[in-house]
Amino acid sequence: MTKTLNIGVIGLGRLGQVYAKDLAQRVPNANLVAVADMQSDIAESFASEYGISRWYSNHHDLIADKNVDAVAVITPTSTHKGISIEAAKSGKAIFCEKPISISLQESEELQEVIESTGAFFQMGFQRRFDRGYAEAKKKIDAGVIGDPVVLISTSRDPFPPPLEFCDPAKSGGLIADMGIHDFDVCRMFMGDVKSVYSVGGALANPEMAKIGDIDNAVVNVTFESGKIGVVNLSRNAIFGYDIRAEIWGTKGSLQVGYFRETPLLVMTREGITHDVVPHFMERFELAYRAQIQDFVNNVLKDAPPSIVAADGVAALKVSLAATNSHKENRPVEVNEI
What we know:
single chain, alpha/beta, Dihydrodipicolinate Reductase, domain 2, 7-stranded mixed β-sheet
């Protein structure tokens, strides 16, 4: 008999519903048995629409549900630590969206609990499960481009989030919130980061300065190996969603990502045009699904998590170092954090 994993989703915001729908309909060997959201009407409505037997208005009741073997924590960042610790102490396997926290202390406290309880804990960094990024990693490991020596990682949103979200006290700010994906990619392709030097400003959206955030940044990265990299971050790619990476090696290079969403060129007297990637779900829909499928597979096979708490802590340290670098206008060693 094929084993299945009884899983509950905590948090039914935009991304939470993406994971929940995939678990309910598209992830083999997953059995979505419960959902929870602070807005009880959302939890009840989702459960009714997708035939989920139980719904809750708080995470405590879902974690206490004896029929739930694993939880996916897709809630605001400020709640990740508390929910994950409660789930770990209850013996649940845990999938937690990035970041663990915007606080290094909280992240390390959670890591300690995970290690002391032996709970299964897998971090969410969906770029590692994107076909392009995953294939690039395989090519690098196979030596196709020789020794990788330079990395350029680019993340550009087509427009800024609401100001209340951008508040660094809630999100960590542009460099920490958006850049943490790129810093995880840095570690994925090039190894641990030694130091960073950031410049940036509220250049296209001056209102960002009022809340202490920025909308554009460039982060120079030096790796422990001596190799180098650049992370480009922006909230004003008005043409569309731009997520790419270039890895330059001693025998060649790799380029990950694309601009054209539909394989169609429109060629007229006025010129040649094509569409663009609209936003993150169009770009990473399959990566999110592959990521939660990987979590389910690992739990059922008693395999180790693909991305552990220590990876989340390491990416956060780089993010915080890069944020401090921008604020203090100096290079910052990661081990200062």
